[in-house]
Write a structure and sequence with these properties.
single chain, alpha/beta, Rossmann fold, Arc Repressor Mutant, subunit A, 2 domains, 11 helices, 13% strand
């Protein structure tokens, strides 16, 4: 399967650079370019897009609001969002993940790591830069403990095995690593992850990580 990529960035030179990189592969292709968040939203409805490389600071509609609208649209549920930006601040990272982004990387990411990241996100994994991971954990720590307690009832929806899977996802393990840890097949691990997302109304693994920290399933330092 060829991964269909949409580039959303207001800098034409950067879009051209990313296009050259992506089109040099054999398993993905750029199917469109957008200079604004509004254009990205429109193109997602026209092209059969698998993933959007989304900048944050764009005219008309910023990348976070575009992400929110794309992920909220029923007909675009399959589209993954990888935020690729020079702006790595705690507020933006948390806002982007809550909007439905599956990944958050700085534009200084290694080219090979970016290509590998695109593949992982399309496969259902979460991808965060080291700074984004620290920012997410820091923000969760700042929240009043009562919020975590109020979310605790959410965990009642999960079986013991699904709660184990939630914890391992939050610790950053891939499906293959979860399978090894629990002595199950990768297919079974993927099924457990998908069921956990469905029960917790999570769009992807990034939202599972947020839920796991908010509910106290894992804590920074685990």
């Amino acid at each position: 399967m060829t991964i269909r990529v949409l580039l959303a960035d207001d800098q034409a030179l950067l879009r051209a650079t990313f296009r050259l990189l992506i089109d040099s592969t054999t398993d993905m292709e750029v199917v469109g370019e957008a200079a604004t968040g509004a254009e990205a939203l429109a193109l997602c409805g026209i092209e059969r897009v698998d993933i959007v490389l989304m900048d944050i600071r764009m005219p008309e509609l910023d990348g976070i609001e575009a992400t929110r609208r794309i992920t909220a649209a029923d007909d675009l549920a399959r589209v993954k969002i990888l935020i690729l930006t020079t702006f790595e601040t705690e507020d933006l990272i948390v806002e982007a993940l809550r909007a439905g982004a599956s990944a958050y990387l700085g534009k200084d990411v290694d080219p090979a790591a970016l290509l590998d990241g695109i593949r992982k996100v399309v496969a259902g994994d979460t991808l965060l830069s080291p700074f984004a991971t620290r920012a997410l954990i820091s923000r969760v720590l700042e929240q009043p403990r009562v919020e975590a307690l109020n979310h605790g009832a959410v965990l009642d929806r999960l079986t013991p095995r699904e709660r184990q899977v939630l914890e391992l996802v939050a610790l950053g393990l891939s499906n293959d690593q979860i399978a090894q840890r629990l002595n199950i097949s990768p297919t079974t691990a993927k099924t457990h992850v998908n069921r956990t997302m469905m029960k917790l109304d999570a769009r992807d693994r990034a939202q599972l990580v947020i839920i796991a920290y908010e509910t106290g399933v894992v804590s920074p330092g685990d």
